[in-house]
Design goal:
Blueprint lengths: L2 H8 L13 E2 L3 E2 L2 E2 L4 H8 L4 E7 L2 E8 L2 E6 L6 E4 L16 H7 L4 E5 L2 E7 L6 E7 L5 E8 L3
Antiparallel strand pairs: 1-2, 2-3, 4-5, 5-6, 6-7, 7-11, 8-9, 9-10, 10-11
Length: 155
């Protein structure tokens, strides 16, 4: 089970508020920001972040660009490695996102694998192997999605 490692890879991503254009594209990006984008492109699409956080972890230096409704994570500082949202307005083209039930996810999204690790439950698209893209829908104790992350598994 690699879900805890995915969580580590995307760091302490936080998101608040609601963006104007709310779109989750599984395995690609959220809110107009795509995996692999440069910081310049992110800023061209999203504007000036509300907050920028720089730090380092066991994988090296990283930067978080925090926007209302969206957090962009750049492990290695060069390109987007993960995008996260907690905004209810963010939805896939099939209408699921934060606030959706696991049942709704399974109906609307193909290729999901749902599992529990400790107290955490998630439904994931993709292979949880280093270098692979994944889309993770993290569920709370209510059984509803609390956070969505599209990212690259680092470890």
């Amino acid at each position: 089970m690699r879900t805890p490692l995915l969580a580590l890879a995307v760091g302490a991503l936080l998101a608040t508020g609601t963006p104007a254009a709310a779109v989750i594209v599984p395995q690609h990006g959220i809110g107009g920001v795509s995996i692999g984008d440069t910081e310049t492109k992110v800023r061209a699409v999203r504007g000036v972040p509300v907050r920028v956080v720089n730090g380092s972890n066991e994988f090296g230096r990283y930067r978080e660009l925090r926007y209302r409704g969206l957090t962009v994570f750049m492990q290695g500082l060069r390109r987007v490695t993960a995008v996260s949202t907690k905004a209810r307005a963010e939805r896939t083209r099939t209408g699921v996102g934060v606030g959706s039930t696991e049942t709704a996810l399974n109906v609307a999204v193909r290729g999901l694998t749902c599992s529990t690790f400790g107290d955490a439950r998630s439904c994931i698209i993709g292979v949880e192997e280093p270098g692979q893209r994944v889309t993770a829908f993290f569920l709370g104790t209510s059984g509803r999605v609390q956070r969505v992350v599209v990212g690259i598994v680092i470890d």
